[in-house]
Amino acid sequence: MSIKVGLKEINSFIRALHCPTRWKIIEILADGAKGTGEISRELKKDSEDVSKPSLYYHLSELEEVGIIGVSNYREVGGGAPEKIWKLKTSQVIIDLIQKEKR
């Protein structure tokens, strides 16, 4: 599971990976798919108390560049279904030399 990115795309990955909380989310998902609530509890175990809106922001930033994605939904109570997140990429390869297309 790897993504190859060029110099044009690298800024998006730098923005998505600049935050230690996002690295912890990646580590949590390395063990398998987890619901948003499970991710929140795991972060709290690591003394990373993140509000729900903040957690969703971190998840969406990682999703936007293709590092994580929604694999399923889980019915919880009577409200909106909980998203189940999975790691889509475990490696980012940077192509420093891009050949022009002719």
How would you summarize the topology of this molecule?
Layout: E1 2-5, H1 7-17, H2 20-30, E2 34-35, H3 36-45, H4 52-64, E3 68-74, E4 82-87, E5 91-94
Parallel strand pairs: 1-5
Antiparallel strand pairs: 2-4, 3-4
Tell me about this structure:
The mean pLDDT is 89. The chain has 102 residues and is α+β, with helices and mostly antiparallel strands. Helix 1 packs antiparallel against helix 4 (52-64). It is 44% helix and 23% strand. The protein has a single domain, classed as Orthogonal Bundle (Arc Repressor Mutant, subunit A). It is built from four helices and five strands. A three-stranded antiparallel beta sheet has the order 2-4-3. A two-stranded parallel sheet has the order 1-5. It has helices spanning 7-17, 20-30, 36-45, 52-64, and strands at residues 2-5, 34-35, 68-74, 82-87, 91-94.
What's the total helix number?
Answer: 4
Arrangement of strands in the largest sheet: 2-4-3
CATH-defined fold name = Arc Repressor Mutant, subunit A
CATH architectural grouping: Orthogonal Bundle
Distance between the termini: 29 Å
What is the makeup of the main sheet? 3 strands, antiparallel
- Radius of gyration from the alpha-carbon trace, in angstroms: 15 Å
Instruction: Estimate the helix proportion, in percent.
Output: 40-55%
The CATH homologous superfamily? Winged helix-like DNA-binding domain superfamily/Winged helix DNA-binding domain
CATH class: Mainly Alpha
User: Stretches where pLDDT falls below 50 for ≥5 residues?
Assistant: none
Tell me the number of strands: 5
**Overall body shape:** elongated
DSSP strand (E) fraction? 15-25%
Q: What structural category do the secondary elements indicate? A: alpha+beta
| Average pLDDT for all residues | 89
Please trace the helix and strand order, writing H or E for each element.
EHHEHHEEE
